[in-house]
Structures are given as C-alpha cells and as structure tokens.
UniProtKB/TrEMBL annotation:
CDD domains: AdoMet_MTases (cd02440). InterPro entries: CmoA (IPR005271), Methyltransf_25 (IPR041698), SAM-dependent_MTases_sf (IPR029063). Keywords: S-adenosyl-L-methionine, Transferase. SUPFAM superfamilies: S-adenosyl-L-methionine-dependent methyltransferases. This is Carboxy-S-adenosyl-L-methionine synthase. Its EC number is 2.1.3.-.
Amino acid sequence: MNDKVFTKPIKKQFEFDEEVAAVFDDMLERSVPFYKESQKITEFFTHKNLSENGLVYDLGCSTASLLLNIHRKLEVNAELIGLDNSEAMLAQAERKCEAFGVDIEVKNADILTYEYKEADVFISNYTLQFIRPLVREELVKKISAALKKEGVFIFSEKVISHSPKLNKDLIECYYDFKKTQGYSEYEIMQKREALENVLVPYSEDENIKMALNSGFSHCEVLFRWANFATFIAVK
C-alpha cells in the first residue's frame, strides 16, 4: 500500500499504529534515502559476523523485512529474533514470516528491559532515535554486554549537524529528496510536526562516542547520505 498517512491533518504525535504499519514498507523506501542500499550493507556485515548456531537480534524489527532478507542468504544455522513494541507491526511481520514459511521469531518486547541472550549481531534500524536520550546510552551498554567478543552492532540513524547552517541545508536536501518520491510539501510538514519531540537524533560524532562509551572498541560509519547514516560498532 502507498503511504498516505500525512495527506490529512494530524491529530496526534507519530506512533507505529495500524495505519502506519499498513504502509510502513512503502514509507521506508520513500522516506529514507538509499534505504535498500543501507539494508544490503547491513545484511552483508550480519552474514560476515554470524557464526554457526549464532544469534541475531533486530531491535525495532517492524514488519521483519530485514530479517527475511537475512534469512534468505543464511549459510549457517542461526536464530533470528525480532523485537518490537508495536502489535500492528508485529502482526504484519508474523503474516510475512508465515507466508514465506520461515522460522523467524518476532516478539512484543521493551528493548530497554528485555533479557538478551549472548548474540553475534545486534541490528537497530532507525530505532535508537526514538529512545529517550536519558536512557539511550544505557541501552547501547546493554547491547554491548550481550554481544560475543568481536560481535557487532549495526545501526542506522537520522543524524544532525552542530553547524546551524549545515543542519538547515541538510534538512532542505532531505525534503527535496522526499518531494522527488511523491510527497507533497503538506505531507512533509505534517510528518515533521508529528515527529517533533518523538524522534531525537544525535550527530554522527555523538553516536560514535556513545558506542565507545558503552564498551565497543571501534565504531565508524558504513554508509551516509546527507543526514542519514549507517554505523557499525565492534565489541
């Protein structure tokens, strides 16, 4: 289904409800620049770091599209677990997994309090930015503690610049991209208002510093387009 969520006046802050879940895959591909390319990079590094009988967590798995793509190219026996706190998203994910006949576990869970098993890979696609800054680093520390030695955390985030002019230009560049994807000025402004104080992005440097402060030995950017970036942190 095509994303038409913000063609009408908003009445609440952004949330991952049934209306959003129904069009989420389209929303991602049209709202996140080079989304498929960043996902392919995530898949590549997941497979490179996944051992026999290993475990992958996808935090904020939404409709499980990424886990399904990872599953298709598995060369080892591995457990894939997707966590999300949106019942609407998980319902879509379960329907997809059933349709493709794959053994992927998706759970309704609070990623801040979930008891993680030792894992090879953690993935988080545009999820940390929805975690309150006061507890965001605590979550990343929890991820680091659950990873095996040399395990990886691959995460994508919207990023900001601390230069006011550059930050303004990055936002303008992004809005020009959204217009080329068929979104109207009205839809763009409606979504921006709905996300106000819900999505709180860090800068590239702040994301890297957070990872290093949380027990990772190394963190760098794998892919970046304007104010969207994919990072890898190595334990």
